[in-house]
Amino acid sequence: MKGTRAAQRYAKAILNLANEKKVAKEVKDDMLSISKTIAASADLRTTLASPVIKPALKNKALKAIFKDVNGLTTGVFNLLVENNRIDILDIVAKQYLILFDGSIQVQNAVVTTVVPLTKELEVKIQAKIKELTGREATIKNKIDESILGGFVLRVGDLQYDASVANNLNKLRTEFKTGNAYVSKI
């Protein structure tokens, strides 16, 4: 993706400065809001990417949309406009969120289930995450009826598949490769 390396550098610098000023959490909330807003608005994405619209006008629009953000976040707008990189604001925001979570030792887990998770299931899955990784994680629930039952847990590059569909596939493979228990008639 274009601009990712530059976005990582900006995000790292922003996080370092936010940590120095002790506003990293507030900036994280701002970056989350920015990321969600840009994702939800095709007009804003088009405006930020447009070479026709003057950078000062983009900056003014961002300050109007995000008027309640931390001063450091407003400074990020100014810096990206000044360096003619405002088009990567969304990537910078996402990279900041990743770096922030990494800095406070938070990992994200995606749990795929057939039905939405209940609080009891979340507790059990959190225990499984802790067993597998040694740390807790924030859980995002994804619904997929094709797994038939059970769950698929993904934390970083680790995947734990306890789905019914996976177990059925294992059985199917076992029957295809031959089974010593089937009598030869």
TrEMBL record:
<comment type="function">
    <text>F(1)F(0) ATP synthase produces ATP from ADP in the presence of a proton or sodium gradient. F-type ATPases consist of two structural domains, F(1) containing the extramembraneous catalytic core and F(0) containing the membrane proton channel, linked together by a central stalk and a peripheral stalk. During catalysis, ATP synthesis in the catalytic domain of F(1) is coupled via a rotary mechanism of the central stalk subunits to proton translocation.</text>
</comment>
<dbReference type="Pfam" id="PF00213">
    <property type="entry name" value="OSCP"/>
</dbReference>
<dbReference type="InterPro" id="IPR026015">
    <property type="entry name" value="ATP_synth_OSCP/delta_N_sf"/>
</dbReference>
<comment type="function">
    <text>This protein is part of the stalk that links CF(0) to CF(1). It either transmits conformational changes from CF(0) to CF(1) or is implicated in proton conduction.</text>
</comment>
<keyword id="KW-0472">Membrane</keyword>
<keyword id="KW-0066">ATP synthesis</keyword>
<dbReference type="GO" id="GO:0045259">
    <property type="term" value="C:proton-transporting ATP synthase complex"/>
</dbReference>
<keyword id="KW-0813">Transport</keyword>
<dbReference type="GO" id="GO:0046933">
    <property type="term" value="F:proton-transporting ATP synthase activity, rotational mechanism"/>
</dbReference>
<keyword id="KW-0139">CF(1)</keyword>
<dbReference type="GO" id="GO:0005886">
    <property type="term" value="C:plasma membrane"/>
</dbReference>
<keyword id="KW-0406">Ion transport</keyword>
<dbReference type="InterPro" id="IPR000711">
    <property type="entry name" value="ATPase_OSCP/dsu"/>
</dbReference>
<keyword id="KW-0375">Hydrogen ion transport</keyword>
<protein>
    <recommendedName>
        <fullName>ATP synthase subunit delta</fullName>
    </recommendedName>
</protein>
<comment type="similarity">
    <text>Belongs to the ATPase delta chain family.</text>
</comment>
<keyword id="KW-1003">Cell membrane</keyword>
